[in-house]
Amino acid sequence: MDYLLCFSHLSWNFVYQRPQHLLTRFSKEYQVFYFEEPKIGDCDRYIINIQDNVYIVELIVSNFDDMAKEKLQGLVSQVLQEYEINTYLVWYYTPMALQFTYALKPEVIIYDSMDELSAFRFAPPQLLQLEEELFRKADVVFTGGNSLYNAKKHRHQNIHSMPSSIDKSHFEQARGILDDPQDQASIGYPRMGFFGVIDERFDTDLLRNVAFHRPEWQFVMIGPVVKIDPEILPKAPNIHYLGPKTYAELPSYISHWDIALLLFALNESTEFISPTKTPEYLAAGKPVISTAIRDVVYPYGNAALIKIIDDAESFITEAESILIDEDKDYWLRTVDHFLEDESWDNTYDKMNTLINKVKMNNLIKHINHV
To answer: Do residues 290 and 361 both lie within one domain?
Structure first.
């Protein structure tokens, strides 16, 4: 079996999202090693755990000093030696990993640009320069959505839009009657819910205003709070922060919501996002209210699958309309037709075909130069 080395800015167990969906599928063809963002610890070492048929590698250094890059490079080299990895592909989620992977000689270099990382809070200043270098090195580039593709398509000759997809069967469970989780069961109705990372992209003002003007509506917020002070989050008797949940638990929570929410602020950190949860909410059969995120407006808003709002007043108007709508069958049939060909399996197949084409072309080039 061939090897695929992935270098990411995300911990495998943080939130189950695009990298996990794709790499668990690639693990059927490759032995996947997923290198998490390096951490500071008591000494220089690595730890490997196996989950979902993927080798999760924690790289640990005693400090991030001038020698850290060399130490990390050495740790990566030790992993390759221990597992006798000689022929491999390299997959980047973060250009920052270039700093300690220069010595690698992969068959193919893949860059999956799932977000505009340079726009996120606390982004390293050298990220843009390293991304430019990664564009020069990469054999194939994927983007996590159409807006990100349009912003970067001029930077590479082999770049493809691969919007995040869905595991339909997983989220369709929410259409059945599932047990209401214990920490949600005591919350009243109507319920409006959000799951995902709660960070600088979250529209705290919108949530605060709607919750204030409709105290009888209950807002369920699921997910970790990162990069922002939890104290700035709106607090009210009808806002309920339930913390992170596992991917397996999500259908049980969504099953008991009346409306699902995409509460993103419109700022530079959300300009190019393509939220994975958009089709997941729809597959769960829930009406969705979203702010005007570009990759949500098109295609979902334009297809009348999702209600697009721009302030608390329009949010309340759309929510009231949804809550009194007793006939959602036509909308649901439209949703199912729209999502008919959408799946992570299809996204994986498209990516794998493009990667195999690069492998073949590189092999031909190598033979011609021998």
So the answer is: no
CATH number at residue 187: 3.40.50.2000
Please, what's the largest Cα pairwise distance for the chain? 73
Domain count, the chain: 2
Beta-bridged to residue 57, according to DSSP, are 35, 48
Q: CA neighbours within 13 Å on the CB side: how many for 22?
A: 27
Reference 292, options 277, 314, 259; nearest CA is 314
> At 37, phi and psi to the nearest 5?
-60, 130
Whole-structure pTM value:
0.91
- DSSP string across 278-323: HHHHHHTT--EEEE--HHHIIIIITTTSSEEESSHHHHHHHHHHHH
pLDDT, tens digit (0-9, with 9 covering 90-100), for 61-88: 988 877 889 999 999 999 999 999 999 9
Look-up of token digits 């393509």: 274
| Pair (257, 360) in one structural domain | no
For residues 176 and 216, state if they share a domain. Answer: yes
159 and 182 co-located in one domain: no
Tens digits of per-residue pLDDT, 110-162? Answer: 999 998 777 666 667 788 899 999 999 999 999 999 999 999 999 999 999 99
Residue 96 is part of which domain span?
A: 2-165+343-369
